[in-house]
Amino acid sequence: MGSVAMDSDYGATRELSSLQKQRALYRPALPPCLQGTAVRVEYGAAAIAADSGDANVISHAFPHTYGQPLAHFLPKTDAAMLTEHPVVRVGVVFSGRQSPGGHNVIWGLYDAINAHNPSSKLIGFLGGTDGLFAQKTLEITDEVISSYKNQGGYDMLGRTRDQIRTTEQVKAAITTCQALKLDALVIIGGVTSNTDAAQLAETFAESKCSTKVVGVPVTLNGDLKNQFVETTVGFDTICKVNSQLISNVCTDALSAEKYYYFVRLMGRKASHVALECALQSHPNMVLLGVDVAASKLTISDITKQICDAVQARAEKDKYHGVVLIPEGLVESIPELYALLQEIHGLHDKGVSIENISSHLSPWASALFDFLPPFIRKQLLLHPESDDSAQLSQIETEKLLAQLVETEINKRLDEGTYKGKKFNAICHFFGYQARGALPSNFDYDYAYILGHVSYHILAAGLSGYMATVTNLKSHVDKWKCGAAPITSMMTVKGWSRGPAASQIGKPAVHMASVDLKGKAYELLRQHSSSFLMNDIYKNPGPLQFEGAGAEAKPISLCMEDQDYMGRIKQLQEYLEKVKSIVKPGCSQDVLKAALSSMAHVTELLTIMSSPSYSGQATI
Q: In the 8-state DSSP scheme, what is residue 283?
């Protein structure tokens, strides 16, 4: 089950720099619906899966928690008021890679709990989910939280294993919640952690455990994205910090005019980080996992694509450039992904790392032998807890740089390339940004999600994720609510090995960059000028005041979202129709209603069908 370090200094008072002390004084704003202690909740219709074809599988797997209603927290309404606030005991755990802003979720949760009843307790689990299983706790107090307000990292509580999945782990979680008499457990994490939160809520409901489970969308990858969640805590900070580093490299490339920089970024194959950083810094090329997968590009295709770009730039006497690569690109290249699946299948069968290469199928063995030794060693690493490869350890940027250099030298020998020698420098921008001081946007977003988490548990809801929408607007216009995690789930088929294939379990799956989205379209419109014209852009260091301090992700601001707000607006329209069109209304009113509704239902039926080509992907 893992162990929790007994000599750790989790929760110890930090020694803060002058800037950290100044940031600790920053007080995140609250939207009107959360100001004061009188919070009102209004329930919408039952939330269903986005893909109607998955609904039966999800409802069967989650009979107690599927089909729960949306919840909206409102400043003024006739809905039921949450006026009584009994003493509660709430647990909170980090379950996922550290992401800037995580501490502010706990701060917001702590403030909301104390504002409604100072006798309530917030209990943090030390060392992530391992601490949850082992009942290693720290009570969150004013003294504990004081030096972690608006600070980066997860070092107030720490994190270890990122799962609550096995029967043993779930039983340990139930035992802990019952032993500590927890009214609720708040799980802070990404797609995998929130899938586990949903399963935990279902198991608790089935076993009559009274502890409510609430999920909070916090992940630097930005891939927990759907109709209810516009972005995740930490994504803005990660992209701003990385964009400055990328821009510095761009300036260096332009200054020396003799190096190509291959920069690998965190963000897995979803590529949201790579897209956002490209929009902020304007590198010459960016490879997106979704692009590669959709086009079924092989490693040879990608190498040729980069070499052709290098050759085109050389013809304009340019021998420098910057190429961005998402860390998950290796899982988007068909033959490499298939190789990884075969390797992971052998891991499952207990084959040792030393013997895996001799157990590979002929085609996989040939590909494996083709790859450089350092990549072979990295591909053999045991997969993560979610069965994905250890992407941070696979140096795809070095692989591509080496393959490009080999091909350019070949073209040089053949006389098809007449430029100067190709020189590559490789970087991995991953861990450098994870512990950064959060941006103002992430300060506010995380703190508000903490407040929303309290109101979810105060309403007696379980299996829900805290949501804040309309994020591209000023905080005064942010909409707070909660959506059942099961409504965010999909069911995907998966395979391991050449012949194995089956339907997977319902889960909150990673959302890749939308190829029909406005952010992607903006990148495509400028890709040619980015490639050839060196229009590098430097957003500068992360700002807390002045120019750039209130900037939000470009990809967030371009999209037309606020799904939760629009659902509520639709409900209001429907209620108004019901109040007008009722027995006793005039014939004209009834005829107009029937005609309008017939047209609307026909249109919506067509748009809801799986074959509707105009259906946009979230």
A: -
Interior angle at CA 407, CA 406 and CA 410, nearest 5 = 90
State yes or no: pLDDT of 87 exceeds 90.
Answer: yes
If you write DSSP's letter for every residue of 344-397 in order, what string do you get? Answer: HHHHHTT--HHHHHHHS-HHHHHHHHHS-HHHHHHHTSPP-TTS---GGG--HH
Judge residue 33's burial from the number of C-beta atoms within 10 Å of its C-beta, 0-12 exposed, 13-18 middle, 19 or more buried.
buried
pLDDT of residue 348: 84
Q: Which residue has the tokens 């290796």?
A: 330
| pLDDT attached to residue 440 | 95
pLDDT higher for 241 or 492?
241
Distance (Å, whole) CA 25 – CA 437: 13
pTM of the model: 0.88
Provide CB contacts within 8 A for 377, sequence distance 6+.
Answer: none
Instruction: List the one residue out of 317, 341, 232, 332 whose CA is nearest residue 276.
Output: 232
Return the amino acid letter for 487: S
pLDDT at 398: 94
- What is the rounded average pLDDT of the residues 166-177? 94
Report the C-alpha gap between 152 and 149 in whole angstroms.
Answer: 9
Residues 6+ apart with CB under 8 A from 15: none
Q: Which residues of 73-102 are buried (b: 16+ CB within 10 A; e: fewer)?
A: bbeeeeeeebeebeebbbbbbbbbbbbbbb
| Residue closest to 484 by CA, chosen among 161, 262, 259, 227 | 227
**Any idea how long the chain is?**
618
- Identify the CA nearest to 164 among candidates 219, 204, 123, 109: 204
- 212-217 vs 137-139, strand pairing mode: unpaired
CA angle 287, 288, 292 (to 5 degrees): 90
Comparing C-alpha atoms, which of 56, 510, 65 is closest to residue 289?
510
The full DSSP string for 198-235 is: HHHHHHHHHTT---EEEEEEB-TT----SSS----BTH
Average pLDDT over residues 337-364: 88
pLDDT of residue 84: 58
Gyration radius (Cα) of the chain, Å: 26
Report how far residue 232's alpha carbon sits from residue 188's, in angstroms, rounded to the nearest whole number: 11
Q: How far apart are CA 232 and CA 200, in angstroms?
A: 21
Q: How many Å apart are CA 501 and CA 427, to the nearest integer?
A: 37
397/400 Cα distance (integer angstroms): 5
pLDDT given for residue 381 in this prediction = 83
31-35, 158-162, 525-529: least confident range: 158-162
- The pLDDT of residue 77 is 53
